[in-house]
Amino acid sequence: MLPEKVSVLIPTFNNEALLPDLLDDVKWADEIVVVDSFSTDQTVAICQARGARILQRRYTVSAEQKNWAIPQCTYEWIFAVDSDERVPLALQAEIQALLANGIPNDVDAFRVARRNFFLGHWMRTMSLYPDYQVRLFRKSVCRFEEKAVHAHMQVPGKVLTLQTPLDHYATPMLSKQINVLDRYSTYKAGELYAQGKRFRWHNVLIRPLAVLLYMFLWQGGFREGFRGFFVAFHTAAYVFFTHAKLWELEWRDGKRR
């Protein structure tokens, strides 16, 4: 098997504080492609100084942004990574070894476990680990689902698992977490409405509480202390606001009084 080259794909928007470390982590790549949503800070300048190729496009949703950029990458293999993630040395070495040795034709992608860190703490409970993500994939056959939130990679062929995890550092600012909650619940409500789903009372009265108790007690979130409670509450609030906004969409269209 012949050695493979790889393009690293990084979506960005005003990530100047995060990018230097990430760009150092992927400097071994044959190409770094940044798809930027017209940042107003030094994001683009930092990426250009490190030799990255810049694509710019107005942001809609994450999956659409990445699917637009994928065909514009030069090489068949793409390693997609977000600006708030880090690629440990062991993972860098593992990917480089795979590419150097060649990859079988029946393998279309590799998934990687992700260690999620919140307020400096590795979150091991509540399904936050191993949190597998498909991140190394063939350009010619793989695309993200057409979903507004939490879209998965669609892979027609075999998916193998890398041995070393990727590290994800969620923003330590609670105010930003709340902004993310507002944005994602809006996206999800619109997606549900477009699918013909309709508001049900139990989704705002019972389901959020059930999610909170399930994550914090049954899935062991209490072992993470306040961080565990915050993540469980944040997820429950996401469920509540998603369905409350679904009610709002119906009201705006005259389907609710």
3D architecture notes:
There is one protein chain. This protein has helices spanning 19-25, 43-49, 62-69, 89-101, 174-194, 202-205, 207-218, 226-252; strands at residues 6-12, 31-36, 53-56, 77-80, 85-86, 107-112, 114-118, 121-122, 133-138, 143-144, 153-154, 158-161, 166-169. By secondary structure, the protein is an alpha/beta fold. The chain folds into two domains: 6-169, Spore Coat Polysaccharide Biosynthesis Protein SpsA, Chain A (Alpha-Beta Complex); 174-252, no CATH class. β10 (143-144) and β11 (153-154) form a beta hairpin. The termini are far apart. One of its GO terms (molecular function) is transferase activity.
What CATH first level of the largest domain would be assigned?
Alpha Beta
Annotation field: number of helices: 8
- Low-pLDDT stretches are none
Beta-strand level of the residues, as a percent range?
A: 15-25%
CATH superfamily of the largest domain: Spore Coat Polysaccharide Biosynthesis Protein SpsA, Chain A
Strand order of the largest sheet: 3-2-1-4-9-6-12
The strand count comes to: 13
Shape: globular
Average pLDDT over all residues? 94
The major pleated sheet works out as:
7 strands, mixed
* Overall structural domain count: 2
Helix % is 25-40%
